[in-house]
Backbone:
C-alpha cells in the first residue's frame, strides 16, 4: 500500500450538482485526487478543480447522491489521479475509473502513471508513417489512415459508425502486424458497448482489447476521466512496451457535454453554445496523445467517434475536433438511406497524413493522382446532379451523362462494400481505375500521361461526341 | 537575484492569485511554487497579484512561495537563434529533449541561447568610437546565409572604452565596454528584450516590393508586399497549414520565423523533419539556416500559447533591425485569441461576443502594427511581413477574430471549403480574396518582369468575375443556352483554374513558380482567350477548342515547362496563335 497522506476532514460547506466546496483545509494541491466517504461508508473519488487559501472546489467522480454536508469524510491524497498500467489490462473490462467489471481482481500494475499525461516534445515526435490497410476502399484509397494518426469518424445518430469502427478493428493491418485495441466508451448505451464486446469476441481479438466503460447511466462527470485513463494505458503500452495501439473513443459528444455540464455548474463564462472557452485545449489534451516517438517502435492511433448534433458539422464539437485531428471520416445520411455501406461521404472526408505516405515506393505510384482525380470527378458529379435536378436529366450533354454514370458506379461499386468484405489496397486501386475509365482520357487532367497509358482501361465503345 | 514576491492564495487552472505582494509590477516575470513554474503578472489589486502560468499548474498549493527576478517576460536575442526550435517562452525544445526525455517536464529552466558555443566576432567599431543605440558594434556569421549584426541595446549609447579584437567568443564573454559614468557597461553578443515591447527603428518606409512566394494565385492575383500583413482564414481541411508551409519554404524573405501556435504536434514534426532536407532554390542551402521555429502545440500550456506570438514577432524585429526582410508565419492566430479568451475568463473579466475579451481588437492591432518596412538605426532597410492564418469556427468569416483581423490587414486570402472539397489547392477563393498592395508593387513587376503585368491581371480577374455570374445562370438553366462567346469565358476560366490557380505543393516542378513563369503562363492563357474569341465570333463552337492538340499542351504547361525551360514557355503564345490561325477557315 502506498503511503497516502491520511489527513481527513469531516463535513463540507456546499454541494452543487457534481461539485462541492470545502473550507478550513490546508495544503491541498490543484488537480489532485480526493477521496470522499459518505455516511454509509461508501467511498468515491474526486478531483480538485480550484484550490485557495483554506478552501477547495472538488468535482466528485462517483456522483454526489447520498453526500451530506455534515458527516462526510474528505481525504486529500496529494497526488493526481493515477492508473496502474500493465500489459495485463488487455483482455479485461473496466469501469470508467479503472475498476474491474469482469469479476476478476485488479491487475497487478507495473507502473503507476498520472492519467493526465504530459505533452510530447514536438522535437521527439516521429512523423506518422506506414499506412494502415483497413480493407475499406473509401478509406484506403481516398482517405488513407496512417499509423500514429488521429482520424475521427463524424457521424450522426442512426448511422453505422459502430459497424465501421469494428470492421476497421477487425481488418486493420500494417505490413501484417496487428494492433492491440483500447476501447473507451463514454456515455454510450449498454447495447452499444455490448455490440463492441460481441464483435471483438467474434473476431477473436478480445484478448488484445482493453475496455473502459463509462455507460450512459454512470455519473456524467466520470466520463471526463475515462478517456484519460484509456490514453494513459495506451501510452504505457505504446511507448514502454513497443506495441501498436489503436484507441477507439466513443462518443466524444458525450464527453464534451459532460465538460459543459461541469463548466456551467462552476459558473464559468461560456463561449459557443454554452461550451467552455477551453474546449479546444481540453480536446487537444486528449487527441494530441496520439502519435509516434523517435526511437520507439510503438505507436498510438486514435479513432474517436462523435455524433454530430443534428448532423451539423459546424457545431463546436466536430468543428474543434476537425481543427485538432488529422482529417475526418464523415458519414452521410443520404447515402446510407440509399443503402450504401459504408456511407463515407466522398468530399468532406479527408486524411491529412495521406499525402506523405502514399505513392511511389509506399503504396503504388498511381495512388496520389488517382485519388485526386476521383475526388475532382466526384465533385463534378455532385454539380451535375444539382443541375439535373433543375433542368432534368434529358437536357444534359452526353459528357454529363457519362459523369452521372461514373458517379453511380463510384458509389455503388467502389464506396460500397460488405461488412465482412476485405478489399486490399491493390484491388481498391484497380477498381478505381476501372470506374474512372468510364470518363474520356481528356477529362483526367490530374493524372500524368505515363500513368494514364499504364492503367487507363480503354473502352471499346466509340468516343462520345461532345455537345 | 531571485526574491520571494508573495504566496499563492488561489489556483484556477493556468491562473494563480498571489497574496502578500508588495513590489511586483505589471507584466513582471515570476516563478511559481517549489517547481519554479514560469508565469507573468497580468493584474494587480491591492496586495494581490494575478499571474498567468506558462506551465501546467497541477499540485500547486495555497501558501506556496512565488519568486521574481524583477524583469518582465523577455527573450534572448543573439547569434544561435537560427535553426533552433523553441516553445512559446523561448525554451529550446531540443535541449529539453536531450536532458529530460520525450515528454516536456515542468519547471525546466534552460538558457535560450547556447552559452558554450563560440562565434567568430568581427568588430565594426573600435576603441574610442562613438556608438548610438541600436547601432551595430560588430558582426558574426551565424549561418552561411545570415550575417548576424551585433546590435547595441536600444537604450545604450556613448563612447566605447574597449572593443574585443576579432576572434572566437562565447556569449558569456564581453565584447565591449561602454563608458557610462562611474561604472562602465559591459556589452555582450546577446541582449534581452521584453516581448511585449516594440523594438524601435529610425523611420517607417512605404512598401514597394512584393514578397515572391512562388505560389501563382498569390503572386499574380493577390500579392503581398514585403512589410505587409496577410490573413489566411479557412475552416479545417481547407489547407491553411500547407499554404503556411509553402510560404515558409519558398518565399523570398531572408529570415523566416515559423510560429506553430496551438496547432497539431505532427504538423510541427513534419516541418522539423522536412525543412532541413529542403534546399533553398536561391541560395542552395538548407532552409533551416534561415528559419527559427516556435512550437507551442495545442496540448502545451495555454498561457505559453498566448506568449508565443510575441516571442516570434520580437525575434522578427531583431532580424529586421539587422536589415533583413523577415517573414513571420503565425499558425494560427485564432488559437492565440482563444488563449486570450481562456485567460480572460479565468480572470473573471467581462466577456463580449463569443466570450472574447473587449481588448481583443486592440491586441490584434498591436500585433499587426509590428509588421512593416523600416529604416534601421544602421541606415539599412528591413521589413517584417506577417502571414497569419485564422481558423474561424465553422468556417464562418463573420466571427470576431476574422472580422477584427480584417480591419488591420490589407491582404486577405480567403480559403474556400468547396474548392478544398474538390481538392483544388491552394483553395484561395478568387472571389472573396483581395489585396490592397497591387498599386504599391506593380512598379516592381513592370520593371523586373513585364510592363503588361497589370493589364493581364485585370483581364483575367474580369473573366473570373464574369464566369462567376455566368455560373449562376448555368446552375439554373444549364450551359447549353449560353451564347458561344460566353461559353468561351467558361472554358477559358476552366483552363485558368486547372492550370494556373491549381498548384500541387507535392510535385517537384509545380511546387514553385518563379515570377517570370507565372507571367508567361498567364500570357499564354490570355493569348489563347483572345485568339479563340476571334474564332468563336467567326462561328466556331467553343467546346470544339478542346479537341485541338494545343489545348492539351496549355492544360499541361505547368508540368512540362520547368524553371529551366522558360525560354521555351515564352514561345508558347506564338505557338498558340499559329495553331489557332490554322483552324481559321
Residues:
Amino acid at each position: 500500500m502506498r503511503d497516502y497522506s491520511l489527513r481527513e476532514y469531516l463535513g463540507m460547506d456546499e454541494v452543487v450538482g457534481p461539485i462541492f466546496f470545502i473550507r478550513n483545509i490546508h495544503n491541498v494541491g490543484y488537480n489532485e485526487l480526493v477521496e470522499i466517504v459518505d455516511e454509509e461508508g461508501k467511498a468515491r473519488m474526486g478531483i480538485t478543480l480550484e484550490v485557495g487559501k483554506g478552501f477547495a472546489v472538488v468535482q466528485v467522480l462517483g456522483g454526489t447522491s447520498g453526500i451530506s454536508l455534515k458527516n462526510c469524510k474528505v481525504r486529500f491524497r496529494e497526488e493526481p489521479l493515477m492508473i496502474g498500467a500493465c500489459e495485463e489490462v488487455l483482455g479485461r473490462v473496466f469501469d470508467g475509473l479503472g475498476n474491474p467489471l469482469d469479476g476478476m481482481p485488479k491487475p497487478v500494475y507495473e507502473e503507476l502513471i498520472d492519467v493526465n499525461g504530459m505533452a510530447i516534445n514536438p522535437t521527439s515526435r516521429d512523423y506518422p508513417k506506414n499506412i494502415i490497410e483497413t480493407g475499406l476502399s473509401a478509406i484506403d484509397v481516398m482517405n488513407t489512415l496512417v499509423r500514429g494518426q488521429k482520424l475521427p469518424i463524424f457521424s450522426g445518430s442512426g448511422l453505422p459508425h459502430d459497424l465501421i469502427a469494428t470492421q476497421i478493428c477487425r481488418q486493420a493491418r500494417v505490413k501484417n502486424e496487428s494492433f492491440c485495441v483500447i476501447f473507451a466508451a463514454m456515455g454510450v448505451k449498454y447495447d452499444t458497448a455490448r455490440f463492441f464486446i460481441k464483435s471483438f469476441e467474434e473476431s477473436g481479438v478480445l484478448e488484445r482489447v482493453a475496455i473502459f466503460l463509462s455507460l450512459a447511466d454512470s455519473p456524467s462527470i466520470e466520463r471526463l476521466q475515462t478517456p484519460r485513463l484509456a490514453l494513459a494505458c495506451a501510452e504505457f503500452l505504446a511507448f514502454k512496451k513497443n506495441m501498436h495501439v489503436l484507441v477507439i473513443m466513443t462518443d466524444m459528444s458525450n464527453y464534451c457535454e459532460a465538460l459543459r455540464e461541469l463548466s456551467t455548474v462552476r459558473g464559468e463564462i461560456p463561449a459557443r453554445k454554452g461550451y467552455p472557452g477551453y474546449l479546444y485545449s481540453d480536446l487537444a489534451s486528449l487527441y494530441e496523445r496520439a502519435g509516434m516517438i523517435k526511437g520507439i517502435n510503438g505507436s498510438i492511433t486514435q479513432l474517436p467517434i462523435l455524433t454530430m448534433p443534428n448532423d451539423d458539422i459546424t457545431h463546436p464539437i466536430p468543428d474543434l475536433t476537425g481543427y485538432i485531428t488529422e482529417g475526418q471520416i464523415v458519414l452521410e445520411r443520404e447515402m446510407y438511406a440509399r443503402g450504401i455501406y459504408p456511407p463515407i461521404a466522398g468530399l468532406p472526408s479527408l486524411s491529412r497524413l495521406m499525402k506523405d505516405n502514399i505513392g511511389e515506393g509506399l503504396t503504388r505510384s498511381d495512388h496520389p493522382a488517382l485519388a485526386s482525380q476521383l475526388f475532382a470527378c466526384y465533385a463534378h458529379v455532385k454539380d451535375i446532379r444539382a443541375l439535373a435536378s433543375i433542368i432534368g436529366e434529358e437536357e444534359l450533354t452526353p459528357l454529363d451523362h457519362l459523369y452521372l454514370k461514373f458517379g453511380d458506379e463510384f458509389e455503388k461499386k467502389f464506396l460500397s462494400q460488405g461488412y465482412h468484405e476485405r478489399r486490399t489496397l491493390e484491388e481498391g486501386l484497380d477498381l478505381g481505375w476501372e470506374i474512372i475509365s468510364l470518363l474520356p482520357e481528356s477529362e483526367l487532367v490530374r493524372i500524368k500521361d505515363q500513368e494514364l497509358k499504364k492503367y487507363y482501361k480503354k473502352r471499346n465503345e466509340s468516343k462520345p461526341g461532345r455537345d | 537575484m531571485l526574491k520571494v514576491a508573495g504566496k499563492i492564495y488561489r489556483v484556477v487552472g493556468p491562473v494563480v492569485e498571489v497574496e502578500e505582494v508588495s513590489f511586483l509590477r505589471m507584466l513582471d516575470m515570476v516563478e511559481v511554487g517549489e517547481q519554479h513554474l514560469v508565469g507573468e503578472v497580468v493584474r494587480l489589486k491591492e496586495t494581490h497579484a494575478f499571474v498567468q502560468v506558462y506551465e501546467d499548474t497541477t499540485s500547486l498549493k495555497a501558501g506556496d512561495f512565488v519568486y521574481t527576478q524583477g524583469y518582465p517576460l523577455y527573450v534572448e536575442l543573439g547569434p544561435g537563434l537560427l535553426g533552433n526550435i523553441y516553445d512559446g517562452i523561448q525554451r529550446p525544445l531540443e535541449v529539453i529533449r536531450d536532458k529530460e526525455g520525450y515528454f516536456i517536464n515542468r519547471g525546466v529552466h534552460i538558457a535560450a541561447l547556447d552559452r558554450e558555443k563560440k562565434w567568430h566576432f568581427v568588430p565594426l567599431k573600435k576603441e574610442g568610437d562613438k556608438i548610438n543605440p541600436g547601432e551595430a558594434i560588430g558582426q558574426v556569421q551565424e549561418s552561411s546565409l545570415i550575417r548576424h549584426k551585433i546590435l547595441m541595446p536600444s537604450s545604450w549609447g556613448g563612447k566605447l572604452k574597449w572593443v574585443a579584437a576579432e576572434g572566437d567568443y562565447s556569449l558569456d564573454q564581453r565584447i565591449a565596454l561602454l563608458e557610462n559614468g562611474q561604472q562602465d557597461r559591459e556589452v555582450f553578443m546577446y541582449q534581452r528584450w521584453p516581448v511585449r515591447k516594440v523594438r524601435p527603428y529610425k523611420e517607417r518606409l512605404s512598401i514597394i516590393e512584393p514578397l515572391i512566394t512562388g505560389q501563382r494565385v498569390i503572386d499574380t492575383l493577390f500579392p503581398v508586399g514585403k512589410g505587409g500583413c496577410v490573413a489566411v482564414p479557412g475552416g479545417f481541411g481547407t489547407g491553411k497549414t500547407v499554404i503556411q508551409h509553402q510560404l515558409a519554404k519558398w518565399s523570398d524573405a531572408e529570415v523566416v520565423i515559423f510560429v506553430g501556435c496551438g496547432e497539431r504536434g505532427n504538423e510541427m514534426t513534419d516541418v522539423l523533419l522536412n525543412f532541413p532536407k529542403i534546399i533553398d532554390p536561391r541560395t542552395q542551402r538548407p532552409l533551416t539556416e534561415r528559419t527559427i521555429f516556435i512550437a507551442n502545440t495545442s496540448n502545451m500550456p495555454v498561457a505559453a500559447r498566448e506568449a508565443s506570438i510575441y516571442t516570434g514577432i520580437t525575434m522578427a524585429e531583431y532580424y529586421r533591425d539587422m536589415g533583413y526582410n523577415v517573414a513571420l508565419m503565425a499558425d494560427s492566430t485564432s488559437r492565440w485569441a482563444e488563449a486570450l479568451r481562456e485567460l480572460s475568463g479565468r480572470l473573471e473579466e467581462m466577456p463580449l461576443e463569443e466570450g472574447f475579451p473587449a481588448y481583443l481588437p486592440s491586441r490584434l492591432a498591436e500585433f499587426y502594427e509590428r509588421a512593416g518596412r523600416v529604416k534601421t538605426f544602421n541606415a539599412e532597410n528591413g521589413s517584417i511581413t506577417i502571414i497569419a492564418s485564422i481558423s474561424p469556427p465553422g468556417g464562418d468569416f463573420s466571427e470576431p477574430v476574422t472580422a477584427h483581423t480584417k480591419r488591420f490587414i490589407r491582404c486577405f486570402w480567403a480559403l474556400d471549403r468547396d474548392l478544398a472539397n474538390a481538392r483544388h489547392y491552394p483553395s484561395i477563393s478568387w472571389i472573396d480574396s483581395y489585396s490592397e498592395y497591387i498599386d504599391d508593387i506593380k512598379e516592381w513587376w513592370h520593371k523586373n518582369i513585364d510592363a503588361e503585368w497589370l493589364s493581364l491581371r485585370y483581364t483575367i480577374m474580369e473573366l473570373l468575375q464574369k464566369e462567376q455570374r455566368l455560373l449562376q445562370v448555368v446552375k439554373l438553366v444549364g450551359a447549353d443556352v449560353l451564347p458561344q462567346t460566353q461559353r468561351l469565358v467558361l472554358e477559358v476560366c476552366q483552363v485558368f483554374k486547372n492550370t494556373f490557380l491549381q498548384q500541387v505543393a507535392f510535385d517537384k516542378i509545380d511546387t514553385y513558380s518563379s515570377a517570370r513563369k507565372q507571367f508567361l503562363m498567364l500570357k499564354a492563357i490570355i493569348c489563347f482567350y483572345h485568339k479563340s474569341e476571334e474564332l468563336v465570333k467567326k462561328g466556331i463552337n467553343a467546346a470544339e477548342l478542346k479537341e485541338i492538340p494545343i489545348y492539351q499542351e496549355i492544360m499541361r504547361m505547368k508540368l512540362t515547362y520547368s524553371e529551366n525551360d522558360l525560354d521555351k514557355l515564352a514561345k508558347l503564345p506564338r505557338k498558340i496563335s499559329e495553331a489557332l490561325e490554322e483552324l481559321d477557315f
